[in-house]
Amino acid sequence: xxxxxxxxxxxxSIIPAGGIGSRLxxxxxxxxPKFLHDLTGSxxxxxxxxxxxxxxxxxxxRILVVTGKVHxxxxxxxxxxxxxxxxxxxxSPKDSTAAIALAAAILVKRExxxxxxxxxxxxxxxxxxxxxxxxxxxxxxxxxGKIVTIGIEPTEPSVGFGYIKAGENLGIAGAPNARDVARFxxxxxxxxxxxxxxxxxxxxxxxxxxxxAALLLExxxxxxxxxxxxxxxxxxxxxxxxxKTVMAKVWPKLKKxxxxxxxxxxAAAAGLVAVVPANFSWHDVGDFAAIAELQSQGxxxxxxxxxxxxxxxxxxxxxxxxDTDRLVALIGVEDIIVVDTPDALLVTTKEHAQRVKNLVDxxxxxxxxxxx
Amino acid sequence: xxxxxxxxxxxxSIIPAGGIGSRLxxxxxxxxPKFLHDLTGSxxxxxxxxxxxxxxxxxxxRILVVTGKVHxxxxxxxxxxxxxxxxxxxxSPKDSTAAIALAAAILVKRExxxxxxxxxxxxxxxxxxxxxxxxxxxxxxxxxGKIVTIGIEPTEPSVGFGYIKAGENLGIAGAPNARDVARFxxxxxxxxxxxxxxxxxxxxxxxxxxxxAALLLExxxxxxxxxxxxxxxxxxxxxxxxxKTVMAKVWPKLKKxxxxxxxxxxAAAAGLVAVVPANFSWHDVGDFAAIAELQSQGxxxxxxxxxxxxxxxxxxxxxxxxDTDRLVALIGVEDIIVVDTPDALLVTTKEHAQRVKNLVDxxxxxxxxxxx
Lengths: 372, 372
Hints:
Two copies of one chain form a homodimer.
Chain A: E1 11-17, H1 46-58, E2 63-68, H2 72-78, E3 87-90, H3 95-110, E4 115-118, E5 124-125, H4 128-142, E6 147-152, E7 163-169, E8 179-185, H5 190-199, E9 202-212, H6 213-223, H7 225-238, H8 243-250, H9 259-269, E10 273-278, E11 282-283, H10 288-294, E12 299-300, E13 303-306, E14 310-314, E15 318-322, E16 327-331, E17 336-340, E18 344-349, H11 356-365
Parallel strand pairs in A: 1-2, 1-4, 2-3, 6-10, 13-15, 14-16, 15-17
Antiparallel strand pairs in A: 4-9, 5-11, 6-9, 7-8, 7-9, 8-10, 12-13, 17-18
């Protein structure tokens, strides 16, 4: 390239909008996954919040959404400014590598020096401007030829997130906080989590990646050459009349693999990954207990209420999530989780919120797909 | 009377089918009170169970049902054998004296020497034949000129029932267990209840009365002369074409008073009340905790299930009452009470089951009559 553009001028966001969120059943369904719901009481869905968080970075024309084709109309309805050029529809779920790397491959064809940033559609971030400052710093680092992740400074020894072990400061101009990534670590047990937090070198892995699209694809080519070749084939046809034919032929056979395994971890081992530590509040809203914590509006005493339910609560605490207009009465139930939807009702406690996933698995194996 | 009939030949049952059962909200409603529900999992409603328990005593033509006019079609649908001659419809709820004494007054006009037995439509009795044996004994006692009640031998120091203090055995032929009633006592505290049970002289007041109708009305005339006169006026017109006119004029002004206060207690003080002790299992199904205990069918582990809900329960105990076809998932909730109806959902615990009544009161004062 003769004239190199400024890093932020090369930036383009990707929003992979997938994942059912089994731990949020029966609110979150295959037909209405987590990102299509307002889980914070903000009045907007998580997808809309994510969109609004990203538009100031590079404008509303530089955000590409990857989602299942079954969610096409819901996504276009929720995001009025999304053009179909920036909507990638998956024929079936193929995990994060296929979603993000296809988006990167489509964008790199349109714009060879593009720097992509991938941000999940269903995470909650309170301080949007701090988030954007961190992304801008990450884009500077990415422009030096790195795959950059954002690491959240832990506020507690959570066992619900993976961690990033940060190494030396990289000393990059315009990115004073950027550090090398020593390695990624899986969700720890509580003892390890405590050690991580005490050490000060471990950050929560928020699953955000910022990198030159070409570098990301180059790394993928090394670890998953077949998947890489298949995705390039689709990208080649994407902006042509062959898109549908090629997708139908290639997509169903794609390997399912998380981008953490296909790109992030191998690249970290090769010394190619950097991290920008951040201390904005972030949550992946993994279960209803998390929603109860996040709820900013609708609190009645110690009871968080999401939805428009008429509620009568007496000596009760926890969270009520309502997707109906039924009256809900709670008496003397503490740390309760009640999720009221038209065809399914869940009653559990904050303590058991994680077990909802097991229940969904049980529903699947007992032939209750109709409510999943 | 020249030739006195045998006591059982004079017997006629009355079923006062009233009382919403506020502690069973939202299952039990003004429009669908307790007695119209199957609360035992027997496959029949409490009213149907009561009817079937009574028919062997004197036949299906000798049972009179008193209920609100709004329940007319539901009652006639549930009890196919009930003739409209034996159906007394109240224009509005006027408590137990009006219901039972009007029935007695109507019957005494048809049959001057009738002995009536009043049995609530919403109580649960397991041993029907034992019940009938007790009633037959009570009828023998009633024929000697007594108002007879049935006292249940307590199995625990319940604070949920009133008690009857029994006196001397009356030594009546054909009624070897019948005793004098010293007095009726209100629901006690737990300390008193323990003393009552230890003494052996106290029985649970099951609210059943067996007496010559003429004696019952004579007692009412002494304590509530106006109410007595008004009821006689209605009874006089009952089997004539004036019924509707007289009801419309007289019924709305009737005094509301429980028969315990208007007849039973004053008559006991006058030495006119006897009790037949009984040890069949009896329950007035006062709240959902009681239903959980009574549930004989539909148990899944420690969870009692009433209704046709699809249920997935994991480490949960208590009771689920379902009036919908929604799937209900319970995870890690113990001693829980979940009542799922089309327009209202209740979640509480066995411990707090009695507080449902307060909630219903709160609903009434906050303008939620539509779900009551």
